[in-house]
Design a protein that fits this description.
The protein has five helices and no strands. With about 180 residues, the chain is mostly helical. The protein has a single domain, classed as Ferritin. The longest helix is centred in the last third of the chain and has 54 residues. The radius of gyration is 21 Å and the shape is elongated.
């Protein structure tokens, strides 16, 4: 679809977000399963339900526009989800994987915040007041999810991941001492 008007751009970006949210509906259960901290599992599971409501809001907006939400693949979300899959596939200390999952999830949230901020502004400019209100609701939810992830990271996940660094350093010091005594140094 050619972008010949702000409305064209608005619809194009809404389609991008619709596809992004649907990709996320498939990714969030995998992220919840990969998380080891119960609080992080719960955050991913809770955001899955929020995402379902966001998809429904987008469908309502498309209904009001008289157009289909389908027809666009969100390459950015596909790439962000792929990064999350790579984190899971690498394996490692569960606490560190949790920190990596938060990193991946916050990249997703920031992408969505940018996208929803733009389409909300377009909706305002185009006089789609109800759509702007719905989009602001989603934007608020994405901001709250990002804030929750930050709080989890700072209060729980990152300190636990950092503890694995200290344990690893202690283990390496012990290995060095053992190597030195075995070699007679």
């Amino acid at each position: 679809m050619a972008l010949n008007s702000l409305r064209d751009l608005y619809v194009n970006e809404l389609k991008d977000l619709y596809n992004a949210e649907n990709q996320l509906l498939k990714a969030l259960p995998r992220m919840a399963k990969a998380a080891s901290a119960p609080e992080l599992k719960a955050a991913f599971t809770e955001h899955l339900e929020v995402t379902r409501a966001q998809v429904e809001r987008l469908e309502k907006i498309f209904e009001g526009l008289g157009t289909s939400p389908k027809g666009k693949k969100c390459a950015a979300m596909e790439g962000l989800i792929e990064e999350g899959k790579e984190v899971i596939a690498k394996g490692g200390q569960p606490e560190v994987i949790d920190a990596a999952l938060i990193t991946a999830a916050q990249k997703v949230e920031h992408y969505e915040i940018a996208g929803y901020g733009c389409v909300r502004t377009f909706a305002d400019r185009l006089g789609y007041g109800e759509a702007a209100t719905l989009l602001q609701q989603t934007l608020d939810e994405e901001g709250a999810a990002d804030k929750k992830l930050t709080e989890l990271a700072e209060s729980l996940i990152n300190p636990e991941a950092e503890d694995t660094d200290e344990e690893g350093a202690e283990g390496n010091e012990g290995a060095t001492a053992a190597t030195q005594s075995a070699s007679g140094e």
